[in-house]
């Protein structure tokens, strides 16, 4: 079933300012409503603090920033998929569950990668500092 534009709360953005406004609203909504995203933001703040504390190199910063944003994007994509599946299905469907589980699995994979990268970057700094 296709949704007519009149059924949508928002129509297509007419200009870039509206597009950015909708994107900002999406980020704000996700941060307010999604516990896991707030956890990832807090973890990012801790990692950034450690980066400043240990004076990591420019290359290490680039890798950390990419990992941080990859995790946040994966979490927001997971949230979008979960919400879309919830709207599309009113009853339990095995395929809907699989879609949600796969999306959650992608967050787990990228988060695990980010932790490994963080350990590779910070363990030498921690050992040198002690």
From TrEMBL:
<protein>
    <submittedName>
        <fullName>Prokaryotic diacylglycerol kinase</fullName>
        <ecNumber>2.7.1.107</ecNumber>
    </submittedName>
</protein>
<dbReference type="GO" id="GO:0005524">
    <property type="term" value="F:ATP binding"/>
</dbReference>
<feature type="binding site">
    <location>
        <begin position="100"/>
        <end position="101"/>
    </location>
    <ligand>
        <name>ATP</name>
    </ligand>
</feature>
<keyword id="KW-0547">Nucleotide-binding</keyword>
<keyword id="KW-0472">Membrane</keyword>
<keyword id="KW-0479">Metal-binding</keyword>
<feature type="binding site">
    <location>
        <position position="34"/>
    </location>
    <ligand>
        <name>ATP</name>
    </ligand>
</feature>
<dbReference type="InterPro" id="IPR000829">
    <property type="entry name" value="DAGK"/>
</dbReference>
<dbReference type="GO" id="GO:0004143">
    <property type="term" value="F:ATP-dependent diacylglycerol kinase activity"/>
</dbReference>
<feature type="transmembrane region" description="Helical">
    <location>
        <begin position="102"/>
        <end position="127"/>
    </location>
</feature>
<feature type="binding site">
    <location>
        <position position="82"/>
    </location>
    <ligand>
        <name>ATP</name>
    </ligand>
</feature>
<feature type="binding site">
    <location>
        <position position="75"/>
    </location>
    <ligand>
        <name>substrate</name>
    </ligand>
</feature>
<feature type="transmembrane region" description="Helical">
    <location>
        <begin position="61"/>
        <end position="81"/>
    </location>
</feature>
<dbReference type="InterPro" id="IPR036945">
    <property type="entry name" value="DAGK_sf"/>
</dbReference>
<keyword id="KW-1208">Phospholipid metabolism</keyword>
<keyword id="KW-0808">Transferase</keyword>
<keyword id="KW-1133">Transmembrane helix</keyword>
<keyword id="KW-1003">Cell membrane</keyword>
<feature type="transmembrane region" description="Helical">
    <location>
        <begin position="37"/>
        <end position="55"/>
    </location>
</feature>
<dbReference type="GO" id="GO:0008654">
    <property type="term" value="P:phospholipid biosynthetic process"/>
</dbReference>
<feature type="active site" description="Proton acceptor">
    <location>
        <position position="75"/>
    </location>
</feature>
<dbReference type="Pfam" id="PF01219">
    <property type="entry name" value="DAGK_prokar"/>
</dbReference>
<keyword id="KW-0444">Lipid biosynthesis</keyword>
<keyword id="KW-0418">Kinase</keyword>
<keyword id="KW-0460">Magnesium</keyword>
<keyword id="KW-0594">Phospholipid biosynthesis</keyword>
<feature type="binding site">
    <location>
        <position position="34"/>
    </location>
    <ligand>
        <name>a divalent metal cation</name>
    </ligand>
</feature>
<keyword id="KW-0067">ATP-binding</keyword>
<comment type="similarity">
    <text>Belongs to the bacterial diacylglycerol kinase family.</text>
</comment>
<feature type="binding site">
    <location>
        <position position="82"/>
    </location>
    <ligand>
        <name>a divalent metal cation</name>
    </ligand>
</feature>
<dbReference type="InterPro" id="IPR033717">
    <property type="entry name" value="UDPK"/>
</dbReference>
<keyword id="KW-0443">Lipid metabolism</keyword>
<dbReference type="GO" id="GO:0005886">
    <property type="term" value="C:plasma membrane"/>
</dbReference>
<keyword id="KW-0812">Transmembrane</keyword>
<dbReference type="GO" id="GO:0046872">
    <property type="term" value="F:metal ion binding"/>
</dbReference>
């Amino acid at each position: 079933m296709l949704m007519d534009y009149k059924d949508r709360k928002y129509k297509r953005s007419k200009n870039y300012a509206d597009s950015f406004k909708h994107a900002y609203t999406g980020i704000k909504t996700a941060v307010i409503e999604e516990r896991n995203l707030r956890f990832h933001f807090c973890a990012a703040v801790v990692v950034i603090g450690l980066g400043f504390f240990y004076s990591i190199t420019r290359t290490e910063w680039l890798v950390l920033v990419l990992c941080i944003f990859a995790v946040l994007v994966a979490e927001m994509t997971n949230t979008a998929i979960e919400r879309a599946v919830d709207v599309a299905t009113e009853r339990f469907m095995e395929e809907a569950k699989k879609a949600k589980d796969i999306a959650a699995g992608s967050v787990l994979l990228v988060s695990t990668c980010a932790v490994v990268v963080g350990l590779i970057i910070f363990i030498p700094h921690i050992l040198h500092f002690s």
